[in-house]
Amino acid sequence: MIEVFKKNRLFAIYSAAVILILFVAIFAPYLAPQDPFDGNMRNVLQPPSTEHLLGTDKLGRDTLSRIIAGTQVSLFMTICLVILLAIVGSVVGITSGYFGGKVEIVLMRFADMMLAFPGVVLAIAIAGILGGSVVNTIIALLAVGWAKYARLVRSLVIKLRNNDFIIAAQVNGTKTINILWRHILPNILPMVVITGAMDIGTMMMEIAGLSFLGFGAQPPTPEWGLMLNEGRQYIQTAPWLMVYPGAAIFIVVATFNLWGDSLRDVLDPRQQ
Prior knowledge:
This protein is mostly helical. 74% of the residues lie in helices and 0% in strands. The chain is elongated and about 75 Å long.
C-alpha cells in the first residue's frame, strides 16, 4: 500500500482528503461546537462572528455545527445508497450474464426500461409517492440507479463466462455458486468498486437535490440539501445560509470525484 501511494501521489493526496472527510463524519457529534438542533430565538439570523463562525439560521441554530452534523447525514446516506446500488446491480448483472437465456432477456429488458426514463424525474416521482424521508430518498434513487450497474456487470460476466478457467471449473463439477463466488465476483469487483467510488459525488448531489426540492430529509435533520432549501428565502438578508452548505457540497463532491478518478488509475490493469 505504501508503494501504491509513492507511485501515485495524487491518489495519496485525495485519499488523505477522503479520510479527513470520513473522520469529520464519524466524529461529527464531538467536533460540532454547539448542538446542531438547539435553537435560540435571540440569535436568529446572526452573521458570522466569533461566537458563531458561520452565523446562525432562522431558528438561531449554529450553522457550522449543522454543516458538520450534515457531513455525517449526507455521507451516510450516500455510502449506503452506493453500496445498495452495487449489490443489487451486481446480483442482477451476474444472474443475467452467467445464466443467459430468458432470465437475461427479462432482467435486461427491465433494466433498459429503467434506463429509458430520466433518472432524476423518476426518482422525484417515486420519492413523492413514498413521502419525504431519508429512507425513502435512498429507495427512490436505488430504484432508478441499479440498472447502470446491472448492465456493466452483465457485460463483464459475459466476457468471463467463456474463459478457460471458468470452463475448467464447470467440467470439474464445481458448483455454480462456487464459480460465481470464487471466479466471477473477484474479477468484476475492481470495476464495481471503481464505478461506486466515482458515483459517490453524483449520488450525493442527487440526494441533496431531492432534499432541496422537499422530497428528501425533513426538518430538523441537518442535511446539506435541506439546509440550502431552508436558506434560499434568506439569500439576500442571510446569504451564509446558502453559501456555506453549498460550499460543503462542492468540496466533498469534488474530493470524491477526484479520488474516484485516481482510484481508477490505480486499479485499472492497463495502468500496471
